[in-house]
Every structure is written in C-alpha cells, then in structure tokens.
Design a protein that fits this description.
Blueprint (H helix, E strand, L loop, with lengths): L9 H13 L6 H6 L39 E9 L10 E5 L26 E5 L5 E7 L10 E8 L2 E10 L9 H4 L4 H6 L1 E2 L2 E2 L7 E4 L2 E2 L7 H5 L20 H9 L5
Parallel strand pairs: 1-9, 1-10, 6-7
Antiparallel strand pairs: 1-4, 2-3, 2-5, 5-6, 8-9
Length: 261
C-alpha cells in the first residue's frame, strides 16, 4: 500500500532536513513523533446513519445483491492509523459515512430538497486496521449539499469507545476556502493534514486515488465531546499538538527529491 503523505510545509522540510543531517540520516522515535500532526477533530454532523445498511464493508460502490454500481466518480483512499508516537494501531475500526452523488445521506432526514438518494450507494462502511495499521476504502467522490464543501465523515473506534471523529477533504475544491467546519479544525497544519490530493488512477481512468494517514492523540474522545462539547456541534475543536505530517517517503523526498505519484 502506498502511504506517501502529500504535505509537509517548507519550514518543516527544512527542519527535517537539518535533523537528518545532524543525526546522520537516522530519526529517533522522539524526533519522528515531533514531526507528526495529530488529526484534528470535527463535528459528527447531523447525518450519521440512523439506520445502518445490511452491507457495511469497505466498498461502498456496490451493495451486495445490488442491481448496478453506485453513481458518481469512484474514489479510493487509504493509509495507516498511527498513534502520537508514529506507531501503527491495529484492530481499530474506521467508519466512513458520506453523501452520495446527489448530496444525500442514508438518514431519515438526509435527502436534500428536490433530490433523490442513490439506492445503489451503500452510504456507510467500515474496516478494521490490520497489523500494520493499514486501512482502505473504495467509495465515490461525495456530492455537494447546501452549505458545505465536498467531504467524508470518519470515526475511529475500538470496542464501544470512539477515539476520534473527523472529516476528510479534497484539495483544490473551491468551497474549501469558505467551509466553516474546515476553517474551524485547529491550526493551519492540522487543516492541511485533512485536505488530501486525489489524482486519477491512470491517464485512461476517471477513478481517483488518494492517501491519508490518521494520527490519534492520547486522550479518548468522550460522547459528550462528539455531540455537544469541544469538537462537536456548538463547540470549537480542542487544542491539539501542532506539527507537520511526515512518513518514511517524506524522509526520502528530503534526501533524494520527491518520487512520482
């Protein structure tokens, strides 16, 4: 699985380069952790499914027994789930829910006025991270609904405890600049950590592919924080440690130049 990050601010590239030079090209876990950006929290929103589909796998484009694939541009993304020290987290469940191509959710109040929900779109899926902390979703590029930009909703759980609720965005979407949820997600580095670049799978394909590593802090997220406290409706996201995301590929990029996507 390609787990290349798409963003390191220039100042952090210079810092990483100096660390590599002064340490002989070796980064300790402490130095590596200092270069990680904790994924910021965001509101769960009003459309977490109030009736979960029978099919809940990580491929949202095709419902088991469905008559056709979902409408929209097929989009895949994946990466690793890491803790604040950069260690992979296995056996965690990552949930995804989103609008279909028409901007509608699988929720009793999630259909936009004048629109119809795509009955072939799963709308919700989940996957358990493997031993390397890896996960992947095959879905579609979300449709727009009034007042927002294009986004995916993400939650990270283990058992009955939810550790993180956040949202993922696509770089270059015009509505990003005025989206109130995105603008309230922590520092600039944190906001950039949830805005990822998606590119065509190949010159002949319209399918999009992106990579996103999720970095968890040390404190579990409580239900009241999700729904009404910091990071939930009516409250700003809690303050988090600020730095910039790096990976092994980032280190190679600093030393040898970026590799092609």
């Amino acid at each position: 699985m390609n787990t290349t990050f798409f963003h390191i601010p220039l100042s952090r590239r210079k810092l990483l380069h100096s660390l590599l030079l002064t340490t002989g090209g070796v980064l300790t876990s402490d130095l590596y952790a200092e270069a990680l950006t904790l994924t910021p929290r965001a509101t769960e929103g009003p459309y977490y499914p109030d009736h979960l589909p029978l099919d809940q796998d990580n491929d949202l484009t095709q419902i088991t027994g469905g008559k056709a694939p979902a409408g929209g541009i097929v989009t895949e993304f994946g990466g690793r789930l890491l803790n604040a020290d950069g260690k992979p987290l296995s056996n965690h469940v990552i949930e995804l829910w989103q609008a279909d191509v028409n901007g509608c959710y699988i929720h009793s109040r999630g259909v936009q006025k004048g629109k119809e929900r795509d009955p072939q779109f799963q709308g919700y899926g989940k996957i358990e991270t493997n031993a390397k902390g890896e996960y992947r979703f095959r879905t579609i590029k979300p449709g727009l609904y009034t007042g927002r930009t294009i986004h995916w909703h993400i939650a990270v759980k283990q058992g009955d405890k939810r550790f993180l609720t956040t949202q993922l965005f696509i770089a270059g979407v015009p509505q990003n600049d005025r989206d109130g949820i995105l603008r309230g997600m922590g520092s600039e580095a944190q906001r950039l950590s949830v805005i990822r670049e998606f590119k065509p799978r190949s010159a002949e394909s319209q399918e999009l592919v992106g990579t996103w590593d999720i970095v968890l802090g040390m404190t579990p997220e409580e239900p009241e924080q999700r729904r009404g406290g910091p990071g939930g409706p009516g409250g700003p996201p809690p303050r988090r440690r600020d730095s910039a995301a790096v990976s092994d590929q980032d280190i190679k990029d600093v030393l040898f130049g970026p590799a092609p996507f």
